[in-house]
Amino acid sequence: MKLSLKLVTVVSLIVVMTGCGNNGIRDRRSDYLLSEEIPPLAVPEEKSSAAIGQLYDIPEIPDTATAVTRFSLPRPQPLSENLFEDTVKIMNFEGKRWIAINKPPAEVWPRIRNILSRSQVPTPRVDATAGEIETAWLQFRDDNVNSHRFRFTIRPGVGVNSTEVSILEMASELGKEPEISGWPDISVSDEREQEFIQITTDALAADINSGSVSLLAQNIGGDDRVQVVGDEEIAPYMMMKLGYERAWSSVINSLSKGGFSIVDQNRSAGKVMVEFKEIIPDEEESTLVDLVLNFGHKTKEVLPVKYQVTLSQLEQTIEVRVLDDAEKTLDRAVAMKLLKVIRGNLS
Description:
By secondary structure, this protein is α+β, with helices and mostly antiparallel strands. The chain contains 6 helices and 14 strands.
């Protein structure tokens, strides 16, 4: 009987609350319409007002005699082809070997650490800022004479949101490890380096879709090695913190994608003649049916335009610029667009 009484009481309360239009709570959704402007906060003269300011500045609206009735919305930039695939691969260039993965360092760093942890490999030195992980001395069953240790270096890659992982190997006779200090410029055993790179590549490829991110590794290995610079005082260019040979190879590979066609190239002079063909939406040919049925705009091709891409060697960087076929500076907007296309397809 008591249980029935409690049940009836609860049901009655629910009916009363649902039957009330405002559920006993005043609707405050329109309160902002009653807001009034109040004078700004006054700060005494002897106090600093640096920490006080408008949180939401309202820009001045120019007084124009005629309202704008039509304007042209700029088309979005072509997406990088590298963004549509998840890849982990071993790269070789000028005798150097590294792992290239199209994920940012903040995602790759914890994966490398997890791989070493799962393999029970001790890591006495970990430096997230420098992007370095050093293992302890390890012994292999097929080597009864030497022990080995490895240094992983994780840094931003050449592609957008990509990472490069290099591994350096050092060997020592058993029992003489304490006498070893520093690291060599190249691995003592190229075979061991290649073996560890292959094992790491396979492990990274197995969990490439892992979503873990390290907050400590947001700026791992320093700033981006490739940046598009668009200062107002100078013509736009792309800065690459690479050696000339690597920069040239990366740019040539990028120009074979994203609408570019290479007409001629001169590596020693740092010049590449290209044609750029852009496919744009045909506003006149697109119909309402195309848009309603999500077919999108019909497109039309425009005649390819010739440009010259130049690479200039500076002290520690390479500058990449895009000029017209007469080697004259392009309009800023056009130059920025083409540089971003090149940047987006670097690898």
